[in-house]
Structure formats: structure tokens, C-alpha cells
Specification:
- This protein is mainly alpha-helical and 380 residues long.
- It has 3 domains: 108 residues; 173 residues, no CATH class; 81 residues, Alpha Horseshoe (Serine Threonine Protein Phosphatase 5, Tetratricopeptide repeat), CATH 1.25.40.
- Helices cover 67% and strands 0% of the residues.
- It has 19 helices and no strands.
- It is globular and about 75 Å long.
- The mean pLDDT is 82.
């Protein structure tokens, strides 16, 4: 089926995020990490080729396999033209890159898992490990990564460049117990960041990126296959499923954010809730307690919001004000919007307005700003 240019661009963008990790991992497994630069360039060339052809020829039945094959041929072409600076090229030139059929492409999970742990080699700083996972496994561009870590794009560029040099000296690690045990905490943290980016996108006008959330869930479920006895992975995946279950009710028809108390609970996905609860129960079967078990700052805030639906008093306000000292909520607009709501119910109009204005300053999305602006307008 032929697609118009706009629809094709949407399909290509979706394919990039959905298949980036798998394609990168399979090419690294085939050609080696020492050709990482060439693989990155080839993958970008494959997406550019998709942009040129898909609007006219239609999206392939298996976009991931198409991208893998197209990028793989580009790698071979580049190696043939650059044989004088690589001693290993002569061996690689004998590779016959077969087209990946759908079963092979979707069944081969090992390279992706190995790529996760390549990003977490001991020679790389823990913060840089998370940056690499977001870059190579999650398909984040440098602007998104810079926002996640509150850094400049130039700073992220430099860090990735330094790490890339270290990665090129390594092979994809075998999934041995020692490797998994030492690196899995960083992998889990990066996947948690990825889910948060999708759940409330920081650098896009899209309030929610459902496909990004689903990609984080897919990668975490993949990790669970090699960490079946790690209760923290059960807990992390449980949190993802439970939050994902509410996404359909989080945005209204106009693309505006719907507050928790106003969400239509009939839209919540019961199957995802059941999966999340089952994983959560599994996570409580031992003594292993993690940050994914303990309530995060946002979870505490959500609990206070739920309590406010029953009763608002000075004790509740005091608990909410204490959250202002939490570094994770320092620039969180929903905290100040909630404080404004509390002061409004306590008939303190000046404090209400001050907190709403603070929330408005921190809002990054047009839909969020609209919600707060409506609250401010209602004060007049």
C-alpha cells in the first residue's frame, strides 16, 4: 500500500524508535564493535533511504528486517572502500549478508541483550553507561539525552564521543553471570529513565509517547529473561505496566493532560494492571528491596493527591510542602500545581496564585500550560 509523505514519515519515525536497538545490536554482532562508527552511519543511511522510498513503494511488511539488510549492505560497501585502514576488513568482505526474514529478526534477542551490557563495561563511567544505553538501545538523540541529564548538547556529544572510542576496543560481551551481576543496576536505571521519557516526554510537545513506553517495557521484559530471580526487575516491570495501564485516560481528545482525579477509570487497561500486580507480587517473595519497591517522590506526591480528594487540612499541606525539599521534585510543575490546589481549598488566594505561577514557569508542554492557565484564570 502506497502512503502519502506525511504518513510515511510517521511510519519511519515509529520504525526508528521501535527497531533502532535491534538493528544496531544485530549489526554489531555481525560486524563487531570496532566498526561502531560505520554501523551508526549505515543505520542513518538506511533510514534516509526509507524516507526516500517508503512514501512511494509503501512500508515493508517487516520494517526491521528491511532496515537491517539495507544498513548491513551499506556497512559492507563502506568497508570495501576503506580496506586500507582496517586489518579485519578482508575477513568481513567475505560475509554474505542474507535478508533477515521476520522469524529470524524477531527471534534473535541475544545481540540486543549483549548490547545492553556492552554499554555498561567497567571502563565507562556509570553516568556515561546510562547515556550510551539511551543512545544506542533506546534511540534517543543527543538533545533528549541532554534534557534527561540536565546537561548541554555539546557536553553530551563529547561524552558519547569519548565512550565510543572505548566501546570500539571491545567485543559484545557474553552474558555470563559476573557480567550481568555487575552491570544490571545501570541497565535497569536507564530503562527506568526511558519509560519516564515516554510517560511524560521532556523534549517534545507530545505529552505521552506510548511507543516509547512500550519500548521500555519490551527491553525490561527482555532483561527479565536473563534475570528471572532478580526481584528488582520484577518490581521495575510491574511499575511500568501499572503506569502504562492508565495512558489512554491521561490525554483527552484535544491532547490536553487529564489529572488523575479526573481520569475515566473505565479506560484503564485491566490486562496490564493484572500483569503489573502479578509481577509486583513476585517481587515481594524475597528480601531484596530496591528503589523500585520503595515509593519514589512522585509516588508520594500521587498519594497526597489521592488523600486530598477525601480531606484537605494543615497536615496534608505540611506533607506536600516538605516535598519542595526533594531534589527530584525541585522543578516538577505538578507539585506546585497541587500546592496551588491545596491553598485554593484553604482560601489562601495569594499562595494559590503564587504556586500556580511557579507551576506555569516550569511547564514544558502546551497542554500542561493550558491546564495551569485555566486554573489561574478561574481565580479572577
Amino acid at each position: 500500500m502506497n502512503l502519502k509523505d506525511k504518513k510515511a514519515r510517521v511510519a519511519i519515525d515509529l520504525s526508528f524508535r521501535r527497531h533502532h536497538a535491534r538493528v544496531t545490536a544485530q549489526l554489531l554482532a555481525r560486524f563487531g564493535a570496532d566498526h561502531l562508527d560505520i554501523i551508526e552511519e549505515a543505520l542513518l543511511a538506511a533510514f534516509a533511504r526509507a524516507m526516500e522510498t517508503w512514501p512511494y513503494q509503501g512500508v515493508p511488511d517487516n520494517p526491521g528486517a528491511w532496515l537491517t539488510t539495507t544498513a548491513g549492505h551499506k556497512v559492507i560497501d563502506t568497508l570495501r572502500k576503506s580496506r586500507h585502514w582496517s586489518n579485519k576488513v578482508s575477513d568481513l568482505l567475505t560475509i554474505e549478508l542474507d535478508t533477515f526474514d521476520e522469524m529470524q529478526y524477531h527471534a534473535d534477542m541475544q545481540p540486543e541483550l549483549r548490547l545492553m551490557f556492552l554499554c555498561c563495561i567497567a571502563e565507562i563511567d556509570p553516568k556515561d553507561q546510562m547515556i550510551l544505553i539511551l543512545k544506542f538501545l533506546c534511540g534517543f538523540d543527543n538533545e533528549k539525552i541532554a534534557f534527561v541529564f540536565m546537561s548541554s548538547v555539546l557536553g553530551i556529544d563529547k561524552r558519547i564521543s569519548r565512550c565510543r572510542k572505548r566501546m570500539k576496543t571491545k567485543e559484545l560481551p557474553e552474558l555470563k553471570p559476573a557480567v550481568i551481576a555487575s552491570s544490571s543496576p545501570v541497565v535497569k536505571r536507564a530503562l527506568y529513565l526511558l519509560f519516564n521519557e515516554g510517560y511524560h516526554s521532556g523534549v517534545s510537545e507530545d505529552v505521552v509517547k506510548t511507543d516509547v513506553c512500550d519500548e521500555a517495557i519490551r527491553l525490561t521484559a527482555l532483561l527479565l529473561k536473563v534475570l528471572k530471580n532478580d526481584l528488582t526487575v520484577h518490581a521495575l516491570l510491574a511499575l511500568m505496566y501499572l503506569h502504562r495501564s492508565r495512558l489512554q485516560s491521561k490525554i483527552d481528545e484535544l491532547g490536553h493532560l487529564v489529572l488523575l482525579q479526573d481520569q475515566d477509570r473505565s479506560l484503564w487497561d485491566r490486562s496490564l494492571i493484572n500483569k503489573g500486580l502479578e509481577l509486583w507480587r513476585n517481587s515481594l517473595k524475597g528480601w531484596q528491596v530496591s528503589q523500585y519497591h520503595n515509593p519514589s517522590s512522585t509516588v508520594v506526591l500521587n498519594r497526597l493527591i489521592a488523600k486530598s480528594q477525601i480531606k484537605v487540612d494543615k497536615q496534608l499541606l505540611g506533607d506536600a510542602l516538605q516535598l519542595k525539599d526533594d531534589v527530584n521534585l525541585k522543578n516538577y510543575p505538578y507539585l506546585y500545581s497541587f500546592l496551588g490546589d491545596l491553598y485554593f481549598q484553604m482560601d489562601d488566594k495569594q499562595s494559590t496564585k503564587n504556586n500556580y505561577q511557579k507551576a506555569l514557569q516550569l511547564c514544558r508542554h502546551a497542554s500542561d500550560r493550558q491546564v495551569v492557565e485555566n486554573k489561574i484564570a478561574a481565580l479572577d
